[in-house]
Design goal:
Number of domains: 1
Largest sheet: 6 strands, antiparallel
Strand content: 25-35%
CATH class: Alpha Beta
Distance between the termini: 28 Å
Structural class: alpha+beta
CATH superfamily: Histidine kinase-like ATPase, C-terminal domain
CATH topology: Heat Shock Protein 90
Radius of gyration: 17 Å
Shape: globular
Strand order of the largest sheet: 1-2-3-4-8-7
Helix content: 10-25%
């Protein structure tokens, strides 16, 4: 397997894997796997690796932008909300004409039905008060609706005893 595509960033490991699909199927599965610390979000390298992988597979630019945003939003949610003190994982898989982004964390989890409406004021430990609100508050809730709008299918699964698996799939056009 090749080494990490960004050797200057040592806080994650990335592995590109090419595997033949099931016998009789000519599709190839290409993927990236990241194991990221919640304590150091580093979302930009995830976006860059996503873009590089997709550009190398001739995915149209608008779909690359969509998938970069999906990776960014789901990883940001894991960093902001999991609070497990450990790592979260990001998987990007291309198979045929479909891209799948999966983010897995070990946090306390949530019920999708209990997520506050987008644009509502909410407590936030990472807010420093520089956005026009009192320290510790922010307007949020736009991430999951954005992921839904950029994806063909989104699934949210609560893991037991802790954590979440959020998966977004997008069918890709060919260039």
């Amino acid at each position: 397997m090749p080494s990490a595509p960004y050797p200057d960033i040592g806080i994650f490991s990335a592995t590109e894997v090419a595997t033949a699909a099931e016998e009789g199927d000519t599709a190839t599965i290409i993927g990236l796997f990241f194991d990221m610390p919640e304590s150091d979000p580093c979302i930009a390298p995830l976006r860059r690796a996503t873009r590089d992988l997709l550009e190398g597979r001739s995915v149209p630019r608008d779909e690359i932008s969509d998938l970069e945003m999906v990776v960014s939003e789901l990883a940001t949610n894991a960093v902001r909300h999991a609070k497990s003190g450990g790592n979260y994982r990001v998987h990007l898989e291309l198979s045929g004409d479909q891209a799948t982004v999966t983010v897995i964390d070990n946090g306390v989890g949530f019920s999708p039905d209990a997520v506050p409406e987008p644009g509502t004021l909410r407590p936030d430990e990472v807010c420093d008060g520089d956005v026009g609100f009192a320290e510790g508050w922010r307007v949020g809730g736009f991430g999951l609706p954005l992921v839904h709008s950029l994806s063909d299918e989104v699934s949210i699964e609560r893991r037991q005893p802790r954590g979440m698996i959020v998966r977004a799939r997008k069918r890709l056009r060919t260039v």
